[in-house]
């Protein structure tokens, strides 16, 4: 007889943690007492504190001594240097599948085996398993996910202008113009950080070109000079270059960081009405305290193009093992469990694609809806820039980041020229993978 999913998950948890005594007659043991295990990640602040709660629970159950090391925005530098010294962290939380692929190619990353692999197959959909698979072997557990296909807006600004959330890109342009006419800048764009601009490209491209070409472009099986890329850039440039659509214009956007952009829309003295970025905006909105998520601060899905259906661009942090020790794989199995996901989910600022996590643990209906969209989306693709080589789209100073910043600075540039520059950079990056 097949057990219900949650009963099967509970039984698997006992195997994963190697805890003797899952039955009533045997006392639990702690099989990894005193054994050190290190996890590296980019998380800091509240996010780090919440993740450390997860690690403490694993330590409590297994006796392991777990340490978290934050690499901040230089996580890849930290991991690479530690690998070079022969002392890698046991696990790293890596947001770029392209970077994971490079580590796997060199043998630095270790395949997920045993109970850890069983846990991933039990709790994650085939699509998310595939995102963690390289060359037929499983390498990544997507512990944290992000919904990158939402635009956040101030309800008071929309009410004052008499507009409603748009459904199509044409409607977005019309709403933006009405907001401008009412005296409010339409959109804040954090152009000082290159990655939000890649997210703009990915959403427009997925809507305009479709999933198949999106996949081919991510793998560089389609050149960046393809007409669909040029059309996407033209669509972006038209919006970015529209008078007063962007707070401060293109030059102002290039001086605006992500954190600043949230304050410019949802701070005590807001300057514009909308901000495009992922669900993690909610954490920054809450810090500011001026608007409440789900009330004064709401979101709508990224608008479709010419009547295309809904599609979602996702991001995420995958747990990747760099040692094959049993305690490492036990922790990987725990990170794949709904129990571990629930610890962070109930505190907010976190989405999980663990299909056995009870979405009722999320702290509010907004976060719950964002998570359910990731689980239910008919068309879902991972962040394209994160799937490319690190020199092109995977980190600070990457070519795609810089070239889109240059396009933001001069949105009247011929998009075919921008596409050609992207293709030149992609060719070089993929040539050295």
UniProtKB/TrEMBL annotation:
<comment type="similarity">
    <text>Belongs to the bacterial solute-binding protein 1 family.</text>
</comment>
<dbReference type="InterPro" id="IPR006059">
    <property type="entry name" value="SBP"/>
</dbReference>
<keyword id="KW-0813">Transport</keyword>
<keyword id="KW-0732">Signal</keyword>
<dbReference type="Pfam" id="PF01547">
    <property type="entry name" value="SBP_bac_1"/>
</dbReference>
<protein>
    <submittedName>
        <fullName>ABC transporter substrate-binding protein</fullName>
    </submittedName>
</protein>
<dbReference type="InterPro" id="IPR050490">
    <property type="entry name" value="Bact_solute-bd_prot1"/>
</dbReference>
<feature type="signal peptide">
    <location>
        <begin position="1"/>
        <end position="24"/>
    </location>
</feature>
């Amino acid at each position: 007889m097949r057990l219900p999913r949650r009963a099967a998950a509970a039984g698997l948890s006992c195997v994963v943690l190697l805890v003797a005594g899952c039955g009533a007659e045997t006392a639990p043991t702690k099989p990894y007492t005193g054994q050190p295990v290190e996890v590296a990640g980019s998380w800091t602040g509240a996010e780090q504190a919440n993740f450390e709660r997860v690690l403490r629970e694993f330590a409590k159950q297994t006796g392991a001594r777990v340490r978290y090391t934050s690499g901040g925005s230089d996580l890849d530098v930290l991991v690479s240097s530690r690998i070079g010294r022969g002392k890698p962290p046991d696990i790293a939380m890596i947001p770029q599948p392209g970077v994971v692929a490079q580590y796997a190619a060199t043998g630095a990353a270790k395949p997920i085996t045993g109970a850890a692999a069983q846990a991933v197959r039990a709790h994650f959909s085939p699509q998310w398993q595939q995102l963690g698979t390289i060359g037929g072997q499983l390498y990544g557990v997507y512990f944290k996910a992000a919904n990158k296909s939402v635009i956040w807006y101030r309800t008071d600004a929309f009410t004052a202008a008499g507009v409603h959330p748009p459904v199509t890109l044409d409607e977005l342009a019309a709403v933006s113009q009405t907001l401008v006419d009412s005296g409010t800048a339409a959109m804040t764009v954090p152009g000082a950080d290159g990655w939000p601009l890649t997210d703009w490209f990915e959403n427009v491209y997925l809507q305009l070109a479709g999933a198949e070409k999106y996949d081919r472009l991510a793998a560089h099986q389609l050149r960046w000079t393809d007409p669909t890329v040029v059309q996407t850039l033209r669509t972006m440039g038209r919006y970015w270059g529209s008078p007063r659509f962007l707070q401060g214009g293109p030059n102002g956007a290039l001086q605006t960081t992500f954190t600043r952009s949230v304050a410019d829309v949802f701070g005590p003295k807001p300057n514009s009405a909308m901000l495009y970025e992922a669900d993690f905006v909610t954490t920054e909105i809450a810090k500011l305290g001026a608007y409440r998520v789900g009330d004064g601060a709401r979101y709508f899905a990224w608008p479709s193009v010419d009547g295309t259906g809904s599609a979602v661009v996702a991001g995420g942090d995958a747990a990747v093992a760099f040692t094959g020790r049993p305690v490492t794989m036990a922790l990987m199995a725990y990170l794949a469990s709904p129990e571990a996901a629930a610890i962070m989910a109930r505190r907010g600022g976190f989405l999980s694609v663990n299909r056995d996590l009870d979405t009722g643990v999320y702290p509010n209906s907004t976060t719950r809806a964002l998570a359910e969209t990731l689980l239910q989306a008919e068309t879902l693709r991972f962040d394209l820039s994160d799937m490319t080589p690190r020199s092109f789209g995977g980190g600070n100073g990457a070519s795609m980041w810089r070239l889109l910043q240059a396009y933001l600075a001069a949105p009247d540039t011929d998009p075919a020229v921008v596409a050609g520059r992207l293709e030149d950079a992609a060719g070089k990056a993929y040539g050295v993978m």
